[in-house]
Amino acid sequence: MTATEWLLATQLQAPSKLVPIDVAFAVVALLVLLPSVRRRGVAGRPGVARRRGVAGRRGVAGRRGGAWRSPAAWRSVGVRAGFAAAAAALVLLVCWLTSDVLDLFGVSLSPVTRMWCALAAATLALAGTALVQGGRWRRAVAIVLVPAALLVPALGVNVEFAKYPTLGTVVDSDPYPAFDAHATPATTVPAVGEVRTVAIPGRRSHFDARPAVVYLPPAALVRDPRPLPVVLAFAGQPGAPSDMFTAGRMGTVLDAYAAAHHGRAPIVLSVDQLSAPGRNTMCVDSQLGDVDTYITQDVPAWATSHLPVTRDRAHWGMVGFSQGATCAVQFLTGHPDDFGAALAISSELQPIDQSPQHSADQAFGGSVARWEAAAPRALMAAHEPYRGHELWLTAGSSDREFSENARELGAAATRAGIRTTIASAPRSGHDWNTVQWSMRAELPRLCGALFR
Fold it and tell me: 229: helix, coil or strand?
């Protein structure tokens, strides 16, 4: 392993790395905040104690750490602490306004994320105040504190959200090698599957999709493999197709399932339903792109001509997170002949971009009625009764809004005849920890359903 490969493989969520970093960060912050500890001789002249004997040593002892007894030094501490507290309070206010009042993110920021944001602001303010107040050593330590105030809270937020497992996933959004349709088949069934990147063209939709990520189980890597079920995966918004494998750790679960089933597992295509990280297409055909046509026609056409997949669409399923989960429920309920099952992790009740009217303007020709008709519950009412379809709905236990969404969607799906399971990821929110738990707990059940 080269030095670069070692660096990119650095784990960003390992306690063995994070705890020492957090401790060092706290020590540096305290050094900037508290008064300096200095050893001075009588009248501030070093060495006087050695010339004046015992009496001199007593005088020195009375003056050691004199800054800790100086009212002026503690007033400076108060100024630094006051600026830090004010900055933290301001950022907490901004978090509340943007998250809870304006709902700019679509989900409420967790208390842990707010804490880290406030801590970052506080330490930056502390460092800035120390640079102004002066002192050679304090300024030097404050300069070190500035990048630490950005890095350490970012690592903390990443642990809370679980998006980037390694440094490599931060700098490379497409970490997998290219798919080779002409690769030499394995002579025996491999122990694990392969994850590859592949471009799936939108021949009918003309949708400008980013490259997809394909998982080929061990049984698909041998010569003349038997046809396998298919799972289409959708990351959230913002996001990229590779997120389902890097942050969601989907490949690990699929390899474990394949190991328990003689190398057989569904072929997974994590496809792009956004075309850009922050674009919410709402998974319909619109001015934002013909996503419905891309997912239901272009992707299956490519898969059936390039991969050993079953043509029986009852054995095709989906898994999605957040916006991608909403899409999965939409496709299952709106195209019951094309998909047999879905796992929806933290789904919205309907496709939504900011507000109903804005959503209608973006993707439904300005018609709120058309937007309402694209909601999964409306689609269920239009297509019921469903026969043989299955739906798993999950959300984080601390994610109250999306947990309620799961209950409402589950009740509607059950009434429509869809076999529905609702589960809660313990001690997690609207984040990739919930995705990882859902993959471990529910993805094997989805795979089993597609093999029936």
Answer: coil
Q: How far apart are CA 269 and CA 229, in angstroms?
A: 11
Rg (CA), the chain: 28
Q: Per-residue pLDDT tens for 322-379?
A: 999 999 999 999 999 999 999 999 999 999 998 999 999 999 999 999 999 999 999 9
Bridge partners, 216 (sequence order): 194
How many degrees, rounded to 5, is the angle at CA 425 between CA 421 and CA 429?
125
Helices and strands: H and E segment counts in the chain: 17, 10
Neighbour-count burial of 19, counting CB atoms closer than 10 A to its CB (0-12 exposed, 13-18 middle, 19+ buried): exposed
pLDDT score of 48 more than 50: no
Please give the pLDDT value at position 429: 92
Total-model pTM: 0.85
Backbone angles phi, psi at 157, to 5 degrees: -65, -35
List of residues 6+ apart from 249 with CB closer than 8 A: 165, 436, 439
Q: What is the number of alpha carbons within 13 Å of residue 104 lying toward its C-beta?
A: 6
CA 54 to each of CA 50, 57, 62, 64, 248: distance values in angstroms, whole numbers, following the listed order? 9, 5, 13, 15, 69
- The candidate with the shortest Cα–Cα distance to 447, out of 326, 267, 187, is 267
Per the DSSP assignment, residues forming a β-bridge with 1 are: none
**Closest Cα partner for 345 from 408, 277, 392, 291?**
392
322 closest CA partner among 420, 394, 380: 394
Distance CA 326, CA 349 (A): 7
